[in-house]
């Protein structure tokens, strides 16, 4: 009973944080069921009729085409990043060689490069390769900017894996390739979850590359599609809220499923072995 009483302040703090962080999502969800005029006259009130006009408008504007474009680009980019970053992190975390630390520092410096400074060369390169206005043209930059943070997370996590596992495998004649895929990689589940969710969120919400490297509605992603709700003299706020509600569902569902592994991966990555 005493332990329960001591935890009451923590529970109250958790409820307060939940209310603060959840209230914007709740308001966004309710606003999506309002009409444009109702929102203009009473933006903070409860919806009177729970109109589905905003969701019908999403179908008319081919919202789900933008949705699937974002899904395709995000999933492909994240999967490739996981495998490249994990393989790049293995020698940095488990092998000793002269350039180990300089290479790791280069990846850390890569996290500091502003995206906007690379727009012109990336646009030129994408255009020269014939990938302009294609989903494949977005995958390359997304992978490049996701690799630095992913390598850092994987490297820090791998350093905490006991070396006894590696030594036992080597005694049994296991090569580095088999050692990585059969022993190390299966232990990276928390780090994989962390890298997946972090990069998925970043790519899903990315706007500037999608704006620069695409020009047609067939290749536009969700952030670009939201511009359809901006008119010359007005903005369809309920429509935007409906689009954001549906666009947030994949992120929320994936996070709720993998939240324990994400926390474990972040905690492990923050401790040096």
UniProtKB/TrEMBL annotation:
Q: What sections of the protein cross the membrane? A: 12-33, 66-90, 102-123, 135-158, 179-201, 238-258
Where in or outside the cell it occurs: the entry states: Cell membrane
Which cellular component terms (GO) are annotated to the entry?
A: plasma membrane
Q: What's the domain of life for this entry?
A: Bacteria
- One of the GO BP terms on file: transmembrane transport
Q: Which UniProt keywords are listed?
A: Cell membrane, Membrane, Transmembrane, Transmembrane helix, Transport
ABC transmembrane type-1 domain: which residues?
67-258
This protein's membrane topology, according to the annotation, is: Multi-pass membrane protein
> Is Membrane set as a keyword in this record?
yes
Question: What family is reported?
Answer: Belongs to the binding-protein-dependent transport system permease family.
Name under which the protein is recorded? Carbohydrate ABC transporter membrane protein 2, CUT1 family
List the source organism: Gracilibacillus kekensis
């Amino acid at each position: 009973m005493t332990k329960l009483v001591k935890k009451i302040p923590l529970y109250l703090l958790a409820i307060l944080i939940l209310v603060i962080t959840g209230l914007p999502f709740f308001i966004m969800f309710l606003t999506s069921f309002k009409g444009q005029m109702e929102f203009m006259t009473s933006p903070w009130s409860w919806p009177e009729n729970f109109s589905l006009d905003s969701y019908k408008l999403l179908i008319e504007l081919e919202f789900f085409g933008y949705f699937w474009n974002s899904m395709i680009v995000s999933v492909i980019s994240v999967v490739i990043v996981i495998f490249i970053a994990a393989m790049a992190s293995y020698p940095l975390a488990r092998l000793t060689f002269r350039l180990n630390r300089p290479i790791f520092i280069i990846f850390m410096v890569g996290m500091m490069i502003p995206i906007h400074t690379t727009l012109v060369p990336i646009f030129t390169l994408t255009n020269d390769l014939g990938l302009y206005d294609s989903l494949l043209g977005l995958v390359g930059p997304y992978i490049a900017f996701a690799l630095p943070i992913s390598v850092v997370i994987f490297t820090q996590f791998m350093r905490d894996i006991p070396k006894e596992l590696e030594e036992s495998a080597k005694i049994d004649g296991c090569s580095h390739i088999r050692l990585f895929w059969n022993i190390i990689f299966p232990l990276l589940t928390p780090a994989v979850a962390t890298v997946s969710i972090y990069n998925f969120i970043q790519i899903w919400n990315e706007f500037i590359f999608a704006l620069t490297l695409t020009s047609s509605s067939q290749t536009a992603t969700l952030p670009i599609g939201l511009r359809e709700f901006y008119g010359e003299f007005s903005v369809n706020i309920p429509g935007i809220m409906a689009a954001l509600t549906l666009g947030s569902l994949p992120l929320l569902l994936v996070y709720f499923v993998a939240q324990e592994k994400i926390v474990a991966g972040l905690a492990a990555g923050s401790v040096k072995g």
